[in-house]
Amino acid sequence: MAAAIYLDNNATTPVAPEVFEAMVPWLRDEYGNPSSAYALGRRAAAALAEARERVAALVGCHPESLLFTSCGTESINTAILSCLALDPDRRHIITSAVEHSATIKLCEFLAQRGYEITWLPVDSRGRLDPGACAAAIHEETALVSLLWANNETGVLFPIEEIAAITAAKKIPLHVDAVQAVGKLPLNFDSLGAQFLSLSGHKLHAPKGVAALAVSRKIRFSPLLRGSQEEGRRGGTQNVASIVGMGVAATLAAETSHHERIRDLRDRLEQCALRDIPGAEVNGDTEHRLPNTTSLAFDGIESEGALVLLDRSGLYCSAGSACTTGSIHPSHVLRAMGYSNERARASLRFSLSRLTTEADINRACQILPEAVARLRALRPTGSPVVAAAPAAP
Ligand code: PLP
């Protein structure tokens, strides 16, 4: 049987062979606790320091700005809750309607406890108006927390413009850069944001390791209290995974693969648009991650499509992984004004450094066949053309 074609890298990425190799000694022989003073512990501490430098180089921050965490979700919760803890009189948060569930669920929880949440809208191409963010800021605003790159559509928010607005109004900005890090050049220190979240498993490191960049110029309140990470994130560090994330960061910093990934993504997209009648791209194609395409195929149901594609060995996603399996259409596509039908007729394909030309050639064959089969199976009378976006 042919090897699977993995086009769901925004959900998670395979661990790169170099990352795996670098981790092995830290799982097998080098079991020291980095807080221990003897040689075994000191070697683990030195490995953490090297990984911190590698990740800092990727995101353009001072190594001391970085805290290692367990996942992007923890980094996001830490950033938001730190701002609220340090400024308890400010009970207003600005975020967007298309955030990852890590932000949405926390903000919904905070709303139940009396916090005011502004959910900034996006337009029909998934774009955010920085002016709307500026207008939403008031004297009780504790922070602005926004995605840099959307995990479902790849659409980029104008984070530099937002950072200029929040800096002028002296409001902390947290950037969820979990999908952006390793796919776009970025520099935390010159951006002017106070927090930036990233996650190892989106860049070929294992799951369960991540980081939060925290500006050294602001006060910080830890989520997990303890002595590690200079008291800013308690808990013995996951040394092997952090070493792996360091190596993954260095690999991701080699930008030479970005163009190749973009070319392969564009080929897949063009083949779908050419060979599948009525296929359409969801979201802005101009300001977008190079590895992602979200496509709508009218007259199909993404749940059925995933089953059929899975049987052909093609892995992709219907919206974000966290909502896959639920019957709810993607909140991102709904926020862009698309109908439930269109949202349910959409599939996300996301590539990585490890995606090959052969993968894309196969996907270009499999996808049109699968969509044609699904359309042929459609009961007569169901709509052929999905509804157009309701929003401007
Ligand atoms: N933010 C975005 C944009 C994501 O895509 C994800 C994961 O899919 C997360 C946050 C959460 O990261 P983690 O899975 O490491 O908790």
List the main descriptive attributes of the protein structure presented here.
disordered C terminus; binds pyridoxal-5'-phosphate; three-stranded antiparallel sheet; about 400 residues; seven-stranded mixed sheet; Aspartate Aminotransferase, domain 2; alpha/beta
Fold topology:
Layout: E1 5-6, H1 17-28, H2 39-59, E2 66-69, H3 72-86, E3 92-96, H4 101-112, E4 116-120, H5 130-136, E5 141-147, H6 159-169, E6 173-176, H7 188-191, E7 195-199, E8 210-214, H8 239-253, H9 256-275, E9 279-281, E10 292-297, H10 302-311, E11 314-315, H11 331-335, H12 340-344, E12 346-350, H13 357-377
Parallel strand pairs: 1-11, 3-4, 3-5, 5-6, 6-7
Antiparallel strand pairs: 2-8, 7-8, 9-10, 10-12
Helix pairs in contact: 1-8, 2-8, 9-13, 10-13
This protein binds pyridoxal-5'-phosphate.
Pyridoxal-5'-phosphate is lined by residues 71-73, 100, 102, 147, 151, 176, 178-179, 199, 201, 210.
Brief summary:
This protein is an alpha/beta fold.
**CATH H level, superfamily name of the largest domain:** Type I PLP-dependent aspartate aminotransferase-like (Major domain)
List each distinct ligand once: pyridoxal-5'-phosphate
Q: How many domains is the backbone divided into?
A: 2
Topology as H/E string?
EHHEHEHEHEHEHEEHHEEHEHHEH
Mean pLDDT metric: 94
Radius of gyration: 22 Å
Q: Any guess at the CATH architecture of the largest domain?
A: 3-Layer(aba) Sandwich
Please summarize the sheet with the most strands: 7 strands, mixed
Q: Tell me the helix content.
A: 40-55%
Low-confidence stretches: 383-392
Number of strands: 12
The computed structural class is: alpha/beta
Q: Within the CATH hierarchy, at the fold level, what is the topology of the largest domain?
A: Aspartate Aminotransferase, domain 2
The strand line-up of the biggest sheet is 2-8-7-6-5-3-4
**Intertermini distance:** 46 Å
Q: What portion of the residues fall into strands of 2 or more residues?
A: 5-15%
Based on Cα principal axes, name the global outline.
globular
Helical run tally: 13
Q: CATH class of the largest domain, please?
A: Alpha Beta
